[in-house]
Amino acid sequence: MDSLKILFAGESWFTYSVHQKGFDTFETAEYSEGATGFLEMLSAHDHTVTYVPAHRVDPDFPSDVAALRQFDVTVLSDVGANTFLLPKRTFTGSEIGPNRLEVIREYVTAGGALLMIGGYMSFSGIGGRARYGASPIADVLPVALSDTDDRIEVPEGFIAAVTEPEHAALSGVPTPWPPWSGTTGSGRRTTARPWYGAARTRSSSSASPALVGPRHSRPIWHRIGRRRSSSTGTATRGCGSRCSPGSDARPSRHGNALRAWRASSYAADGPPGGI
Question: Looking at residues 66-89, what average pLDDT do you find?
Fold first, then answer.
């Protein structure tokens, strides 16, 4: 497999601020996108990327499996389940329509690849508001999700030590990795499903291990799973510049690593009994 067609949804937000200057106040508004560098890296590795910001999911994200299967990989990053489950026609008009998360689940079981990247509105999310653990895609992700706030915050930062460098998802990525900052959701409390091979990195700070998966004896960072001819993966850290290592060549290697991970799924065996 050479270049990939990638659909990336999320990583955008609006910020409304109130500025108080003594007696007086005024308001400002700002629109931001957090995945620009990551998407540029994918394009630099000859992948074709279609970007759907969070506020454009309703009109632009595919509503049926046939449309979604035009893409080799679908990426969800920092956009909650409600954005897919409550389109305007349903929320305000009480109209029945397709469940886009069920569409994603069917896409994965039919051979598509799904990657979820961390953020305040990924996995269970801040305050449990992302709600993916109660959604149709919960059983196709390679991790079991909590019903509550699943963030692990490490303000002191940490250093990740790769424990399975031979995994396809880390293909060509040199070690050691540089220090990572501890802002915007340092990781997630997730449990890997037993039938998945996993690429794990162990993160720690000077005080204690930073990212620990329940029922595992060692800390966990990324998990990449495989089902039959499909692939699912989770990167519990965000993809924005605040969440990634600083000036370093390693992030540029992940374009090839993503290609290697997706290609490896075609020869992978599924879990016992299928899905």
Answer: 95
Question: Taking a C-beta distance cutoff of 8 angstroms, is the pair 75, 32 a contact?
Answer: no
Query: Which among 194, 193, 200, 196 has a CA at the least distance from the CA of 220?
Result: 200
Provide the residue ranges of all domains of the chain, joining segments of one domain with +: 5-267
Q: What share of the chain is helix, strand, coil (3-state, %, to 5)?
A: 25, 25, 45
Question: Which option is the CATH number for 5-267: 3.40.50.880, 3.40.250.10, 3.30.450.40, 3.40.190.10?
Answer: 3.40.50.880
CB 113 within 8 A of CB 72: yes
Tens digit of each residue's pLDDT (9 = 90 or more) over 181-192: 655 444 555 555
Cα dihedral 81, 6, 64, 267, rounded to 10, equals: -100
Is residue 108 over pLDDT 60?
Answer: yes
- Select from 145, 143, 173, 144 the least CA-distant residue to 161: 173
The amino acid at 78? D
Do 246 and 178 touch, CB atoms closer than 8 A?
yes
